[in-house]
Write a structure and sequence with these properties.
Helices cover about 30% and strands about 30% of the residues. The chain is an alpha+beta fold. The protein has a seven-stranded mixed sheet with strand order 3-4-5-6-7-8-9, sandwiched between helices. It has a three-stranded antiparallel sheet with strand order 12-16-14, sandwiched between helices. Strands 1-2 form a two-stranded antiparallel ribbon. The longest helix has 24 residues, at about 5-30.
Length: about 270
């Protein structure tokens, strides 16, 4: 079985993510139509084509590992998972993408024994790339898919920052911020807040650019898996709202793969 720690395997995955990013930006530039899925969330051609690229690559590299992907699940294609499976969100932050923003991301996360062990998060519009896992030192770099050449530059290690109350910066969801989030931020006396879409929120914590990200509204496992793995590799953590371990593969519930609320943090405790 191919190993996710193999540098050649990672190179192929990154090349696929590069292609997915190009497709996403090309569609955003040319214009597109959107439609609503059964859960009321939007989907575009960019979501579908980017996911197709990633699924094709993962099935070739890891034929024995199930892949749970957002648009496939929405179409009723839910694989039987075991102790090891991938979670894919080929376009996280679709609302930001539709609005012409630049915070949307491409995500691949690997789960083993209910925990995230590897993640890649890529923001095509800015070119920011984040990689990390249990056996992989976390790093960030630039991968500019606005160019034709697949090239990674400016590679450097990721580390969360030490918490300094006077400089504390919280991150909140741009589209899903709610009253519970606001009350929690007030109780923690966190007044500096940056609003972002997508899994970039986890990556800014991992990069030492922010301190804590609370979320009280539900989201899906493919929204968090890749960023969770990167954040933990960089020295951060993600727990449930009461401090409980945050697990994946939640299929025995009314909505499979639905996440509860959580607190993600860098040096903040």
């Amino acid at each position: 079985m191919n190993s996710i720690t193999d540098t050649d395997i990672q190179e192929v995955l990154l090349a696929a993510i590069f292609r997915a990013g190009k497709v996403i930006l090309d569609i955003q530039q040319k214009g597109f139509n959107e439609k609503l899925k059964q859960d009321g969330s939007p989907v575009t051609l960019a979501d579908q084509l980017a996911e197709e690229i990633l699924l094709t690559t993962l099935s070739r590299l890891f034929p024995g590992i199930p892949v749970v992907a957002e648009e496939a699940v929405a179409a009723g294609q839910i694989p039987t998972i075991s102790d090891r499976f991938f979670l894919v969100d080929a376009l996280d932050g679709t609302k930001d993408f539709i609005a012409g923003g630049d915070n949307f991301t491409v995500n691949i996360g690997l789960i083993e024994q209910s925990l995230p062990v590897f993640g890649i998060v890529y923001a095509p519009a800015s070119g920011r790339l984040f990689v990390g896992g249990v056996d992989i030192k976390p790093w960030q770099a630039i991968m500019n898919c606005k160019q034709n050449l697949f090239e990674i530059t400016g590679k450097k290690q990721l580390n969360v920052r030490a918490f300094e109350p006077s400089k504390a910066l919280a991150i909140a969801s741009h589209s899903h911020r709610d009253g519970k989030t606001d009350k929690w931020l007030e109780r923690q006396k966190l007044s500096k807040i940056k609003l972002l879409a997508s899994s970039l929120k986890f990556c800014l914590l991992a990069a030492g650019e922010a301190d804590v990200y609370p979320r009280f509204s539900p989201c899906m496992e493919w929204d968090t898996a890749a960023g969770h793995a990167i954040l933990c590799a960089a020295g951060g953590k993600l727990t449930g709202l009461s401090g409980e371990q945050f697990l994946y593969g939640k299929t025995e519930q009314a909505i499979p793969f639905l996440n509860p609320g959580f607190i993600a943090s860098g040096g903040w405790r």
